[in-house]
Amino acid sequence: MPISAKRKALLLLVAGASVLPALAQERPESILPPGFNEQTPPPSPTPSAPVVPTPAPVQPSAPLPGTPVPDDLGLDNLLSNDLAATAEPDPAAMQAYELPAYARRSLARVGVVGTDQGGLAPGAFGRTDGRFLQMLMARLDAPLPSRWLSIALRRALASQVDTPAQVNGADFAAERAWLLVRMGEPHVARALIEAVDTDNYTPKLYEAALQTALAAGDPGLVCPVIGPAQRQSGDRAWVLLDAVCAGLSGIAGQGGPQLEAARKRRVASGVDLLLADKAVGLTNKRRAVTIEWDSVGELTAWRYGMAMATGVDVPAPLLATAAPRVQFWRAMAPALSPVARRPSAELAAAQGVLSSAALVDLYGAIDQSEDPSSPDAAAARDLTAAFSAAAREDRVAALRRLWEAPEGPRARYARLVLTARAAALLPPAADEATERAIAAMLSAGYDQAALRWRGVVTRGSDGWAMLALANTGFGARYSRGEVRGYGGGQGDSTLKRQLFFAALAGLDRVDAATAQSLAGDLAVDIALDNPWTRAIDQAAQAGEPGTVLLLAGVGMQTGNWHGVPPAYFYRIIAAMHRVGLDAEARMMAIEALTRL
User: Fold this and answer.
1) Strands (DSSP E) found in 465-525
2) Contacts for 292 with CB less than 8 Å, ≥ 6 apart
3) What is the DSSP letter of 460?
């Protein structure tokens, strides 16, 4: 399958040695329209050591020291000049008072999910050069086509992992957080940012915190660092947020003067300034502001974040101009009603941002709050029937209505995720719902429930192929005839057959001779050799699941499953299998057959 221009560019990044100094200064996209963000922020330090062509092992070293945050207690506004000159506090003493030594957290290991909570081990990125890992994260185009790869990558980014060599721990956390935001996971990104003490923030982490706060619709996230952030960054958004944070303090008269000063300095105008004004007035009922969207042609992160923070509804045509990740952000926006969140929540569930259980809970809220005659309420009643109808045929009928109602592949896959648990409660039977019930169960990882259906599937069907991949039984291996017997079912049958074989070979379910024979029959180049294949093979050999998942994301830079090259898919599955991510690899392979 031809390799896209985007993937070729990423392969050049993996191979190239000249791009790292520039990437060290990468910062998130501007949150404001052209002309709004005119000041240039201070550049991040440029690493002096060259980048390696692939993530070659390096000797571990201590992370670079964090960027100090100047002490800012606002004493000049409280004390006279004479008194301030003679009684200036010691910044180190004040810092120790605010955060005693025993409470400080090291930058050598940053994260929020420990191994006891399902996180990856601290050495998940091994001895790979941290600058190479940051390059991969900065250039990874999210969202990914795979729900299960997105889930696994989120887990890696949120895990309590050791900071790799050659990077600062706060900068590494910032790059992880910014990727999580682009994946549609601002709440996970927020937790990761808050795992770093504020006195260790760097310019890159300030910017990641700003983007995260807007994506989550919660400007209060950055209020504790608003002072030092303004000194570190030239982004005009901080000037407006200074006024917003002052208004949120609850002290009468705060925020208004700062906002008026920003207006006079022409820091912002139009809807951008009005949204800040509305946020300042949240604690002042006399400061009423009306937001009009008629003249707004683009939904920036600033406009989205401040609208969510102030409870302002964004018109659908304006939402359509935003990146896909904005829909995932909306799925968890507390300012929206369950019905308003429902379309975004279904897309988020298909992407892995929301779980099957979370989507079921949302429909439960719709069932309790909506007009019984609305389509959403009808879907909620069907979901209830799919779980609790007395007769099996009534439960199947409710499931079919849910599966057949949506338009578009993402929405249809979301309904499989929604009905996963209900399908798992069905008694196995060979009927028109068999294959979709199996696909629904496996979309949410109910593999043991799905394997109860082995006796009712037809050999060579989609259902049979999905269960062959789900099977974890000892010695579950397949012959050349069995693999060739899979017909590809409905959809893109040729690509499905190729990915089915690639997954079985990567999971070591066929012997080497059979794999070589089938690779020729199905035109899957399992011996492909390029900088990316060497990098992911090396990461797998070194036992680095975090590095493997980042490289897997690079290898799947495509808008949907139809663009995934089988040769790349084989390498990804094999690498994940080798580093202990077998469950995620199996579910991702099943997802491919379901979504093609």
Assistant:
1) none
2) 271
3) T
Q: What is the pLDDT of residues 130-140, one digit of tens each?
A: 999 999 999 99
Cα dihedral 447, 450, 452, 454 in deg (nearest 10): -110
- Encoded tokens for 355: 């779980």
- Number of Cβ within 10 Å of residue 548's Cβ equals 32
Closest among 570, 560, 567 to 594, alpha carbons compared: 560
CA distances from residue 461 to 184, 329, 450, 505 in whole angstroms, order as listed:
34, 37, 15, 19
Residue 294 in contact with residue 315, Cβ under 8 Å? no
What is the average per-residue pLDDT within 208-214?
Answer: 96
**Are 528 and 522 a contacting pair, CB within 8 Å?**
no
Which residues, in sequence order, are bridge partners of residue 159? Answer: 113
How many whole angstroms separate alpha carbon 220 and alpha carbon 213? 7
Q: What is the pLDDT of residues 452-510, one digit of tens each?
A: 999 999 999 999 999 999 998 756 889 999 999 999 988 899 999 999 999 999 999 99
> How far, CA to CA in Å, does 177 sit from each of 115, 202, 318, 555?
19, 13, 26, 21
Beta bridge partner(s), residue 162: 109
Strands 161-162 and 109-110: antiparallel
In this prediction, residue 284 carries a pLDDT of 61
- Decide if 354 contacts 348 (C-beta within 8 A): yes
- Percent of the chain whose predicted confidence (pLDDT) is above 90: 69
pLDDT bracket for residue 8 (50, 70, 90): very low
116-122 LR contacts (CB < 8 Å, sep 24+): 118/155, 119/155, 119/158, 119/159, 119/160, 120/155, 120/156, 120/159, 120/161, 120/545, 120/546, 121/159, 121/161, 121/545, 122/160, 122/161, 122/162
Tokens linked to 1: 């399958």
Question: Tokens for 277?
Answer: 């004004």
Q: How would you label 390-413 residue by residue, b for 16+ Cβ within 10 Å and e otherwise?
A: eeeeebbbbbbbbbeebeeebebb
Query: What is the Cα–Cα distance from 377 to 371, expressed in whole angstroms?
Result: 7
Nearest to 551 by CA among 7, 19, 5: 7
User: Taken in order 98, 104, 108, 114, is the CA torsion positive or negative?
Assistant: negative
How far is 256 from 316, CA to CA, in rounded Å? 31
Q: CA nearest 204: which of 147, 131, 259?
A: 131
